[in-house]
Amino acid sequence: MKNIKKKSILLFFFGLFLNTYIIHSQTNHEVSVLKWFDKNVGQKTLPISNGKLHLNFDRTFGTVHRYYNSKDLTKGSLGYDYQDYYDVPLKYDIFKDEIILTSDGESDLIEVVLTKEKTQYFEINGRKFVNLNNENLLTVSSRGGYYEENLIGKNFTFYIKHFKRAVEVKKDTDIFVYYNYKNEFLLFIKEKYIIINA
User: Which of 85, 108, 120, 149 could, after both became Cys, cross-link 79 (CB 3.0–4.6 A)?
Assistant: First the structure.
């Protein structure tokens, strides 16, 4: 009787493991299918390629720029108009709080800005950012927009708002833009947002 119970428990856990593996495999398969579809249809025809042009005429010096981490496009993923997209060349303009991508998915000749109201989330450089434009947030912070989902606990979520402020700097007879990096820490707990620093 003891052996039958032991075997039943082992079979139960094996079945649970097998179901978890199958569910995970289906998710990976779905992502592969979506990537294949987007590649074969061509990014030019996808909804994410529609938006206003991103123009940047900043005169900066050194390695200073208005973007998160890099001014170069980096492959990432995003949720746009309730559709997931993978391996999309993105960059995040934290000065204007805008997501930029190329209209054709390859060259960076024409860059477009995604419509913020249609963007649920994006992932870039191993970080996930979510769009937190809602009334509860706006009662404690005037910023809104994209926040890095930094830590998710059992009863809370910790967010970081990355942003830059522009300062004009005169050098000889030229005027350049210098960007100062800033951040805001936000805690969502008990259905409320709390700013930890401002």
Answer: 120
The structure's pTM equals 0.71
Q: Encode the chain (198 residues) as per-residue pLDDT tens digits.
A: 444 544 444 444 444 444 444 444 446 655 444 444 444 444 444 557 667 777 778 888 788 999 999 999 999 999 999 999 999 999 999 999 999 998 665 555 788 999 999 999 999 999 999 998 766 676 667 788 999 999 999 999 999 999 999 999 988 888 899 999 999 999 999 888 888 875
The number of residues in the chain equals: 198
Backbone torsions φ then ψ of 194, nearest 5 degrees? -130, 125
Burial 38-57 (b: 16+ CB within 10 A, else e): beeeebeebebbebeebeee
Evaluate whether 47 touches 79 at the Cβ level (below 8 Å): no
Under 8 Å between Cβ of 119 and 78: yes
- What separation in angstroms does the CA of 157 have from each of 68, 79, 113, 166, 175? 21, 19, 28, 29, 41
Output the six-digit token pair for 7: 């075997």
Is 101 within 8 Å of 108 (Cβ atoms)?
no
